[in-house]
Design goal:
Layout: H1 4-26, H2 28-34, H3 41-61, H4 71-90, H5 102-128, H6 143-164, H7 184-207, H8 210-233, H9 245-266, H10 268-272
Helix pairs in contact: 1-2, 1-3, 1-5, 2-3, 3-4, 3-8, 4-5, 4-7, 6-7, 7-8, 8-9
Length: 276
């Protein structure tokens, strides 16, 4: 398992993200006016939903038990922090450093980068020393689950790459997918999230670890639920008759949740058997 210091960093990160994400999620109009780049209340609430999901990822990453079981989760946490910081760097002219929520946003990302990095470095160090990082794993993941993970990785990766290179006028920014026009900064932030999830899913598929797949699915579920709540709370913004791609936005998250919930429930013994 992780050292107490590494676990402590994960816990601090989770608490910080829960506070920041909860503020955006519960007070989106207030947060949108103070956000470091131009967002609508809907976007602010959605980003708050991501942060609540990252809270779960970080908390799981710092759990007791074999580090190998949470390798995909640790990877997501580290990559999410890194990729979102890169978005700030690439689009820094649009980032308003004087905005009230600028510092909390950057501090949260820095903590995410640090917590994931602590976990990954410790994992690499122990593996290099020949230590067992997997513990009593619950076996290999089923072929169907591995295929689903690979398919998810490809789809999310392609989406992330597509939006990264999107122009200022594209379906991603013009309100044809997300129901409101959004800035390129927001689109790239979406892309960074999707890329982090894609690589986490890819690692889970490559490792073929049953327990790693269950932990990743649990964390992803906690990211999807608040994102869907934000969508349904702002469903009036959707015009599915004229912008049918909006249905893809909601439908994709809903379909993924429908797959995740029974999978996690069926294999809940993996979670119940872990040290907390």
């Amino acid at each position: 398992m992780l050292t107490p210091i590494a676990r402590g960093v994960h816990r601090v990160t989770a608490v910080a993200y829960l506070g920041f994400g909860g503020l955006l999620f519960l007070a989106p109009a207030w947060a949108a006016e103070r956000f470091p780049w131009t967002v609508t209340p809907f976007v602010a609430m959605t980003i708050g939903g991501w942060c609540i999901g990252v809270t779960c990822f970080s908390w799981i990453g710092g759990r007791r038990g074999p580090i190998g079981a949470v390798l995909p989760v640790l990877t997501f946490v580290w990559l999410f922090g890194l990729s979102e910081i890169l978005v700030v760097f690439v689009d820094k002219p649009a980032f308003q450093v004087g905005a009230p929520l600028a510092v909390p946003y950057v501090v949260s990302l820095a903590l995410t980068l640090a917590s994931g990095g602590f976990g990954l470095l410790e994992l690499v160090h122990r593996a290099a020393r020949g230590e067992d990082i997997h513990g009593g794993d619950s076996g290999s993941v089923a072929a169907g689950v591995r295929f689903a993970l690979l398919a998810l990785a490809v789809l999310l990766g392609a989406l992330a790459i597509g939006v990264t290179f999107a122009g200022t006028v594209s379906p991603a920014t013009s309100g044809k997918v997300f129901p409101e026009p959004v800035t390129l900064f927001t689109v790239r932030a979406f892309g960074a999230l999707n890329l982090s999830l894609a690589i986490g899913a890819l690692i889970a598929a490559i490792r073929r670890s049953h327990s790693a797949s269950v932990w990743l699915a649990l964390a992803a579920g906690f990211l999807i639920v608040p994102t869907l709540i934000a969508a349904f709370a702002n469903f009036a913004a959707f015009d599915l008759a004229n912008r049918p791609l909006g249905a893809v936005y909601v439908g994709a998250y809903a379909a993924l949740l429908v797959l995740i919930v029974p999978f996690v429930w069926q294999h809940r013994a993996v979670l119940a058997g872990a040290e907390s």
